C-alpha cells in the first residue's frame, strides 16, 4: 500500500534518509521490492519536530499529492531543516481519493501518526468506526482514509495518555466491527506514532501476515561491521530508524520487527513487547 520511515536521534537533515540513502524513501516510491505495490506515487508527506522546539512541541507537516520523486519542494525542505525526530511517508492509494488531506502523516496537537496497510472492506465498516470517534475529535478528521479514522480512534481510546493500550483498543474495535460485517481479516498494517519524544511502531494484521517492518542496527555496531563505510560517520551514536523496508543492501544492518509486536524507541534505545499477540 505505502512505504514509510521514522527517525529518532540527534538532529539530522531528513534528506539523508529520504533522498540520499541507497534505497531511500524516494527510491522506494519508484521501486519498492517488499511492498504490496511496486510504485508508491500517489502523494507523500514529511512530518518533523524542529530541532529548536521545546520538548512536546507541535510538529511541522508538509504533504503533497505529487509523486515524491517529482517534487522539488520536498528536496528543498528536507535539506533545509534539521530534526531529532521525523516521519516520511509515500502513498499508494488503495481506494480513497488522491488529495492532500489523505496524505500521511496525520497530526493532532503534538502527535504524528502514519500507516501502511488498510482496514479491509472499509466502506462496510466506515460508518460504525467513524461514529465511535469521540465527538470532540471528529471535526479534526479532514480526509477520507481508513488510516485517519484509525488514528482518531486511538486518540479516542487514550493515545495521549498511553499509546500501546489505546492502539490495542482501536484495533480490537476494528476487528470486532469488521467481523460483525462479515469481514474475515479486518486489520492489516504497520503504524507509527510519536509525541516528539518517543516513537511507537506497531506491526499487526488479523491474518498474521503483516506488511514488512524493520529497524536499523545501532550505529556503533554498524561502524564495527563496516569500518570502511564513511557514511556511517555522519550519524550520531543514538541515531535509529524504523522503516517499511531496509535503506541499503548491507547484510545485518537492519532487523525485521516480528509479527504482533510494538517496537518502542526512546532515549534508552529499542524495546519490544507483544501487541495483540493472542488476538
TrEMBL record:
Whether Ribosomal protein counts among this entry's keywords is no
Glutamine amidotransferase type-2 domain ranges (all copies): 2-279
Coiled-coil-forming residues are: none
The superkingdom listed in its UniProt entry is Bacteria
Keywords from the UniProt entry: Glutamine amidotransferase
Q: Which InterPro entries does this entry report, sorted A to Z?
A: EgtC-like, Gamma-glu_amide_hydrolase, GATase_2_dom, Ntn_hydrolases_N
| Matches recorded under SUPFAM superfamilies | N-terminal nucleophile aminohydrolases (Ntn hydrolases)
Pfam families named among the record's database cross-references: GATase_4
Transmembrane helix: present as a keyword of the record?
Answer: no
Q: What is this protein called?
A: Class II glutamine amidotransferase
Amino acid at each position: 500500500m505505502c512505504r514509510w520511515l521514522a527517525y529518532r536521534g540527534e538532529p539530522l537533515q531528513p534528506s539523508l534518509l529520504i533522498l540520499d540513502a541507497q534505497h531511500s524513501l524516494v527510491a522506494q516510491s519508484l521501486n519498492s521490492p517488499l511492498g504490496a505495490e511496486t510504485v508508491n506515487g500517489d502523494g507523500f508527506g514529511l512530518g518533523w519536530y524542529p530541532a529548536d522546539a521545546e520538548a512536546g512541541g507541535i510538529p511541522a507537516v508538509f504533504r503533497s499529492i505529487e509523486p515524491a520523486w517529482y517534487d522539488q519542494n520536498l528536496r528543498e525542505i528536507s535539506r533545509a531543516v534539521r530534526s531529532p525526530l521525523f516521519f516520511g511517508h509515500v502513498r499508494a492509494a488503495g481506494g480513497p481519493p488522491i488529495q492532500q488531506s489523505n496524505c500521511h502523516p496525520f497530526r493532532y496537537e503534538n502527535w504524528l501518526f502514519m500507516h501502511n496497510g488498510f482496514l479491509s472492506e472499509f466502506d462496510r465498516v466506515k460508518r460504525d468506526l467513524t461514529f465511535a470517534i469521540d465527538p470532540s475529535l471528529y471535526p479534526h478528521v479532514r480526509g477520507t482514509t481508513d488510516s485517519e479514522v484509525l488514528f482518531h480512534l486511538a486518540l479516542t481510546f487514550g493515545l495521549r495518555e498511553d499509546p500501546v493500550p489505546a492502539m490495542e483498543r482501536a484495533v480490537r474495535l476494528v476487528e470486532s466491527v469488521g467481523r460483525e460485517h462479515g469481514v474475515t481479516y479486518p486489520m492489516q498494517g504497520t503504524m507509527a506514532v510519536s509525541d516528539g519524544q518517543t516513537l511507537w511502531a506497531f506491526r499487526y494484521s488479523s491474518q498474521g501476515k503483516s506488511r514488512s517492518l524493520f529497524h536499523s542496527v545501532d550505529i556503533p555496531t554498524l561502524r564495527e561491521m563496516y569500518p570502511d563505510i564513511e557514511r556511517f560517520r555522519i550519524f550520531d551514536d543514538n541515531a535509529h530508524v524504523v522503516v517499511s523496508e531496509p535503506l541499503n543492501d548491507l547484510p545485518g544492518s537492519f532487523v525485521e520487527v516480528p509479527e504482533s509486536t510494538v517496537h518502542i524507541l526512546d532515549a534508552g534505545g529499542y524495546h519490544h513487547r507483544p501487541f495483540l499477540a493472542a488476538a
